[in-house]
Structures are given as C-alpha cells and as structure tokens.
Design goal:
Six copies of one chain form a homohexamer. With about 70 residues, the first copy, chain A, is an alpha+beta fold. Chain A has one domain: Macrophage Migration Inhibitory Factor, CATH 3.30.429.10. In chain A, about 35% of the residues lie in helices and about 30% in strands. Chain A has two helices and four strands; from the N terminus they run βαβββα. Chain A has helices at about 15-35, 60-65, and strands at about 5-10, 45-50, 55, 60. In chain A, the strands form two sheets. In chain A, strands 1-2 form a two-stranded parallel sheet. The first copy, chain A, has a two-stranded antiparallel sheet with strand order 3-4. In chain A, α1 links the parallel β1 and β2. The longest helix of chain A is centred in the middle third of the chain and has 19 residues, at about 15-35. Chain A is elongated. The mean pLDDT of chain A is about 95. Chains A, B, C, D, E, F: One of its GO terms (molecular function) is isomerase activity. Chains A, B, C, D, E, F: It comes from Alkalihalophilus sp. As8PL. Chains A, B, C, D, E, F: Its EC number is 5.3.2.-.
Chain lengths: ~70, ~70, ~70, ~70, ~70, ~70
C-alpha cells in the first residue's frame, strides 16, 4: 500500500487523461518492480499546481516561462 | 496542534458542507479523545482530488468508476 | 481509497501502539461513516515529529513545553 | 534542493500574484540565509484551500469567518 | 521541477540504497518520458514509515503482517 | 492558521536547534508580513530527510555529495 504523490505545474497545454493514466500506471509498476509492492493497494495522487503557485530559484514558474525557461 | 490532512476523490455527488464539517469535527475529536490534543490548535485540511488524478491498482478512479468500482 | 495523514509531536511520553491503532481505526471509521468510504482501501499514515521540528506561534513546541504549554 | 509547502485558505480577497511572488522569494531566501541552501534548486509550492475545507478548533474557517474570527 | 513523494513502510528487510536509487531514477524518468519534465530539477523524496504508523483497512500494517498479509 | 512544511536533507553537519528556531520564526513572520496571518495559529513542520532518500536529477543527494555537489 505505498502512497505516491506527484506535484506538477498546470501548463498552457494541460496534462491529458492519457498522460495521467501513464503516470499512475508507471508509478505503480515502479513500486511493484523495485520493491514488490502490491499494485492493488498502491495509491497515486497527482496534484496540478498553478504556475504562479509553484516556485523555483525564488521565482514563480509563471515568471520563468515568460523567459522561455 | 496536530495537523490532519484528508485526501478524497471529487465524486459525481460532491461532498457537502455538512459532511466536511463532520470530517473536521470527527478528526479533531479523535485526536482529543485518543491523545488529549487541544482542539483549539488542531488543523484539518481536506483535499478533494479529481477522479482522474487519483489512482489505485494502476488505474485512475475515473476508470474504476466506469466499471462500478 | 481515502488517504489520511496525521502529524503529531513526539512527546516525552511516546504514543503507544494501542493509541496508534485507535487513530488508524478512528480515522478509517470516520471516512466510512461520513462519506461511506471503503475501509479496505483507506490509508492512514501517522507522522511523529520531534518537538523542535514542530512550530506554533513562531516557537518550537520544545520551547513551549518548557513553559508548560 | 529544499521543498517548502505553504497551505493557506482561499479568502474573500484572493492572494495576489505579487503576494505569491513574495512568499516564494521569502521562503527561498529564508532557507538560503539560515541553512545556506541553493536558491536555484529550492522548490516552493503554495496550496490555496477552500475555507470550508480548512478546519481549526473543530470548525471550518468558513464558519469562524462568519463570527469575524 | 516536479516533486514526487513516495511513502512506503519500513519492513523487516530494509529498503537498500540501490533500491532507493532505482525509485529515484524510475520516478524521474517517468516524469521525463510522460511529460517531458527536466530531470535536473525533478525532486523525489522517499518517506519510510514504521509499520505501526501505517494503516490500511482500519488496521496497522504491523498487525496485518502478523497474519502474513 | 497557515501550515508550512519544510523538507530538507539530513546533512553531515546536523541542523541545530537554533537554526530550526530561525526557520520556524522566519516562516511564521513571512506569512504574517505578506498575508497578515496570525502567528498564534501558524503551524510549521520541518522534515529532515536522509540524503539517500532525497533525489534530484535522478540521483540521490548522497551520491551528489560524493562529487561535492
């Protein structure tokens, strides 16, 4: 019953349902392959964060994106 | 000053204000009864997660709900 | 498959195994009673935090305990 | 590469972009000044929580605000 | 700069350094492959939780392990 | 009643009690100055993570420190 939380920014191009499914599947498989964890009780939660609520290097990602970073 | 975070899925039928109040009250009372914690400084945060952002068994809850799970 | 995280301080008198079981049981029952969630997939994680790593009102709990708070 | 998560309530007056930038900058500078951490890899995430999803003293903040607290 | 938090139980056989490296690498690669995220700023944090602090189905994992679950 | 969680690595030189107090004070003051939050109900939790449990760029910090990073 591992718990995996993935926090990513909400970009101009939204994350698709298919990509979310790949993240859930990939994270669950990773815990199964590395630690033999049971997928049936592996929980994955994806948090999508507004770019102005996410900071790196003292700046919001919204600002960094304006410079193409 | 315990901190309690409750993550639940955002279902078709939204969680009501009354239910959220019951979760806050119930969690605060639990910490008071079991550990004698002071309700006045007990913090409860409820996160409601989109069903396609919440995975169990390698699948999103959105997919599982389609099968009535 | 709700996920509940409980953060509490590591006090002079440690939290007993029995109390942890009561917290796990109580939190799981709370989600079942209020929202009808399935206990089988309800995850509860208890984090015990050193008193000097836990702050309230700009002070560590370690300092506050010295004043009997 | 410290990770700082700030959870605040979504009040009637929303938090401005400028204030979020100040929180990101301030938290990053704090880790640099106190522990010499590299701002370039310091991550700050701000979560804005609905007032009825945030509880203190067994009540939602939404209820407390009605009493001017 | 995604942030990935993995919570697992501290089992009788501890997680090895090599396994932790595989979890960090695997989670970072997953975000790169699915969302094109830059590994250089991808943060992974692994929390190892005592079995009596981790609950599923209203019971601690410590209790479930006694029954071989 | 903001909640601030600071995750940092457990380095060779441990974080001192004084530094933890500075982090708690600094984070509390930051929320007071920027958003006018009440220090009395501001919670700060510092998590110190083993270097092999903390990854950046697909590698544990333990490995990066071996190269002086």
């Amino acid at each position: 019953m591992p718990y995996i939380n993935i926090k990513i920014t909400k970009e101009e191009t939204p994350v698709t349902t298919e990509q979310k499914q790949q993240l859930i599947e990939g994270a669950t498989t990773l815990l199964q392959e590395v630690l033999g964890k049971n997928p049936k009780t592996t929980v994955v939660v994806i948090d999508e964060i507004d770019m102005e609520n996410y900071g790196l290097g003292g700046e919001s990602i919204k600002e960094r994106r304006k410079r193409g970073e």
